[in-house]
Amino acid sequence: MARINKLFISGYRSIQEEIEIAFPASMPTVLVGENNAGKSNIVRALDLILGEMWPGSREPDDHDFWNRDSQNGSIEIRAYMSDLTLQDWRGEHDVNSIMWIYNPNAEGEKLTFRADTSDGEKYVSKVVRDNCICVVIGADRKLSYQLSYSSKYTLLSKIMRKFHNSLVENPNRVERLKERFEEIVNIFQEVEQFSNFQTNLKEDFATILTGMTYGLGVDFSAYDPSNFFHSLRLFPQEDGNTRTFEELGTGQEQVLALAVAHAYARAFYGGIILVIEEPEAHLHPLAQDWLARKIKTMANDGLQILLTTHSTAFVDILGLSGLVLVRKVNNSTIVKQLNAQSLSEFCVNHGSPRERTNSATILPFYASSATIEIITGLFAKAVILVEGPTEALSLPIYLSKVDLDVSKEGVAIISVMGKGNLAKWWRFFKAYEIPVYLTFDNDTRNDENGNRRIDALRTIGIEDNEIESIIEIEDWSVQDEFCVFGNDFETTFRGLFEDYNALEDEARSQIGDSKPLVARYVAHRLEVNDSDGWNSMQDFKAKILSLLYPEVEDGENTQELNDDEFDDVPF
Fold first, then answer.
1. 79 φ/ψ angles, rounded to the nearest 5 degrees
2. Element (H, E) at 177
3. Which in 339, 437, 473, 571 has the greatest CB count within 10 A?
4. Is the pLDDT at 213 greater than 60, yes or no?
């Protein structure tokens, strides 16, 4: 059965410049990124070319053009396929891609819907599209529609049509079915009210049609001769009792949709692309983890699945080839998709030892130490890497007190559990072109010779002749790409914030000696003033803002940035 290998889009909705998304085999394709980045527009493009509506008659609306202006150029959507053939009077042709192009400025035909085949462009037949079905389960979860016969385009209609075609290949089987269905109708006619209604309906209809040039009658049947399987309905069951879809929770509905699509893919060996927007919706965290594992299994069985998600449960570094980071730059959607080879090459080019970095080991290397906290960085506008939970818990509080809400701004402050992991995760996020800021202290415990700090600094491009002085800094030093918290975080902050010592003692008396919890307690209770500590915190804030909005940075005036300059920035 047919499979989609790659999706190409340009000029469509939020997508100005061309983007390409690969669909690797045996794993889901997962679109991640912040809200309003354009994930849904990618789904709409795929649905337009392979979904239930016939693309050849689809005239785009104004909002389908980038920036809502048809003068910005044409729209092109192209699905590259494998194992798909097109039959015409000349024979069978391999389909390379299906294309939908709309050029509002064309003098002749504005809309082109064709198949690019081994023998040139051909008109797309219904048979071709039926062999590469795209079913979208939107965030509104209209499962009852997909599992009905409301139109010939629903998932159930398409599945049952294939079953019907197989059934009618055997005439004897058809005759036996007709006999059984007639027995069913006879049982219905034992209901007197139904029998009378049927008789009256047929008489009234015949009277109304008197004088027509041809005869037409009506009768009730237990089957649709054009599709015997339309007599079958799919219903959920609980404890052996049939239920309605209205009785299901939305989480149960989407699991049922997955099961139907998976069973279809296994029965026909593929040929279906199931798109689920936000599969985490209405599911608690443990159920999300379970569903993510099931989706991986189904994809491995041949079902092509495309997800849009805001949940780390559906992000698997071992399945990195299917991970697509979606974001907006200059109001236009762009995507970044890596694989093991491209990630390993990036890491080698940024300081990772070549002898220990290759496409065979790179994904297990990252997957083995990835945490939920680290994965959240893929949903962020910018990432601040810190050594441990002490900084991760306290820094957001300090920054909020100088009017920088990191959650609102989309900044993830992530603990990488030690200096030795700073370079590692900097390479990962930078490979996805996410802005990254490093923080560390010069505590020599576990880094006596400074190799871990040196590795991190070299990775971000600091020259060797500058590194020696940096790893000897004893005070808080805020730089453009990194900051050093002196000899160690707590010692430096005790010297910079007047009440730090007293608040630490108070914290230990109430919550114990946990360093991260004590640091968070102190951060909550420190009051802002004109001390060196709060002035340095303002500098730290400015560096983060310039990381988020580099176009606002103005050389020496960077430190003068204030909140008023960002009041109108859409977060």
1. -105, 115
2. helix 171-188
3. 437
4. no
**pLDDT, the chain, mean:** 87
DSSP SS3 for 338: coil
List strand residue ranges (DSSP E) for 490-556, in order: none
Angle among Cα 168, 169, 170 to the nearest 5 degrees reads: 85
> Are residues 492 and 478 in contact, defined by beta-carbon separation less than 8 angstroms?
no
Q: Beta strand pairing status for 120-123 and 133-137? A: unpaired
Kindly give the residue spans of alpha helices, DSSP state H, lying in 432-482.
451-459, 464-470
In sequence order, the β-bridge partners of residue 22 are 6
Residues 6+ apart with CB under 8 A from 27: 296, 299, 300, 316, 319, 321, 322
CA triple 289-294-298, angle to 5 deg: 150
| Site of tokens 């082109």 | 112
State whether residue 104 is helix, strand or coil: coil
Q: pLDDT band at residue 387, thresholds of 50, 70 and 90?
A: very high
Which structure tokens are listed for 84?
């798909």
Is the CB of residue 103 less than 8 Å from the CB of residue 110?
A: yes
3-147+234-323 classified as CATH 3.40.50.300: yes
Q: Which residues pair with 85 in a beta bridge?
A: 94
pLDDT in tens, 47-65: 999 987 888 878 888 889 9
User: How far, in Å, CA of 369 to CA of 395, rounded?
Assistant: 23
The pTM assigned to this predicted structure is 0.84
Burial class (CB within 10 angstroms; exposed 0-12, middle 13-18, buried 19+) of 282: middle
Asked if 545 and 399 count as a contact pair (C-beta separation under 8 A), the reply is no
Segment (H or E) for 24? none
State pLDDT tens for residues 457-468. Answer: 999 999 999 999
144-161 burial: b if 16+ Cβ within 10 Å, else e: ebbbbbeeebbbbbbbbb
